[in-house]
Structure formats: C-alpha cells, structure tokens
Amino acid sequence: MHYLAIGLRCFVGVVFLISSLSKLGPMSHREFRASLRAMRLLPERLTAPAAICVVSGELGLVVCLAAPSRLLVGAGFAVAGLLLIVFSGAIAVLLRRGNSSPCRCFGASSATLAPHHVLRNVLLAAAAATGAFASTAAHGPLVWAGVLVAVCAGVALGGLITVLDEIVSLFRPGAAVSAPARDRPVVPVPASDRLVVPVPASDRSRSGRSAPSAPARHP
Fold first, then answer.
1. Element (DSSP H or E) covering residue 38
2. By Cβ atoms counted within 10 A, which residue in 2, 10, 31, 101 is the most buried?
3. Three-state SS for 115?
4. What pTM, to 2 d.p., does this model score?
C-alpha cells in the first residue's frame, strides 16, 4: 500500500500542479475567468471569486499531498476528489446544454468540452479516493527502489493526463487539418498580378496547336 499511495500522491499532485500553474499568469488567469464566464454556470459577479477559489484549492491540495503528514495527505485527496466531482458535474451540465466552450483545465486550449473530459475527471476522482484509502492503510518499512519506481510512474502518468486533449486530437487528424483550411478566407488575385508565361511557337506546334501565321504584308 505504501507504494500505491506514493504513486497516487505523485499522480494526482502533478495533475493539479500543472493545472494550477497554467492559470497563475495574468493572461492565463484572465482567459480562465473568461472561460468560466462563457460557461454561464455562475452569475457574472461570481466568476472572478470562483476562479480564485479553484486555483487556490488546486495549489492547496498539491501542498497537502507533498506533506509528510497522513492527515494532510488525506485532506489533499479529499479536496482533489471534491474538485473533480464539481468539475465533472459542471461539464456534464454544459454538454447537456450543448455548450461547446473550450476546456481551460490546463491553460490555453482550443479543445472544446467533450465526454472524455467527464471520464477523465471521474477516473481522477477514483484515483484520489484510492489514494486516500491507501495512505491510511499503508504500514511497514519502505524500500527506496520501490519509492523511486512509484514516483516516476505517478509523475509520468500525471503528465500524460494533462496532454489528453492532444492525444485525442491525434486520432482525428481530418478535423485538425480541414478546420483551418475551411476558415481561411479566399483572396482573389487581381488580373494585373497574374503571371502570364508566353509559350514559344515551336512548343505550340509540337503540342498539336498550329503556330499563328505571320501577318501578310501588302506593298
């Protein structure tokens, strides 16, 4: 249980660390607030406080998961599960309404909300619940080789989750390529800018076209 708890602490911690850091910059935080406003789940006056609460909660649970106290680790997993349940419910409501706002979970992204975002959050909530149980049930000595493997596995899996949208887009290359081409405006080329290449008479005769005859000269 020790290694499972350590791996899940790193897994959930890395996910929320990347999520919180991607919203800390002035521009990133404004974009996150704008995405909350576009979702229309909260009144206009509550979007800014909600954005601050989300970022503060994410940073706070990361600190708790990194602490050596079992009580703080359990609190970190509990906050993570609560946030993930709220996120899952909000995304489900938006999908039911047909709202296609971009997902700003991990900073700027053009990926719209989709069912796999709900599935991702549900799986993360299950991981948080499992981590809370494993942290309280873990007993006995630790082997540093096992700790290293658990940490590396948790960090790698957490980083993989944060790029889930990019991975999903790899299986839909047509949508990623056709959208820019469809949205690109067609600019007509003026006749004066068109390049006209003259074809020599010898080439026209070889291609089956008769060369124009020279004009007749009259005395």
1. helix 26-39
2. 10
3. helix
4. 0.73
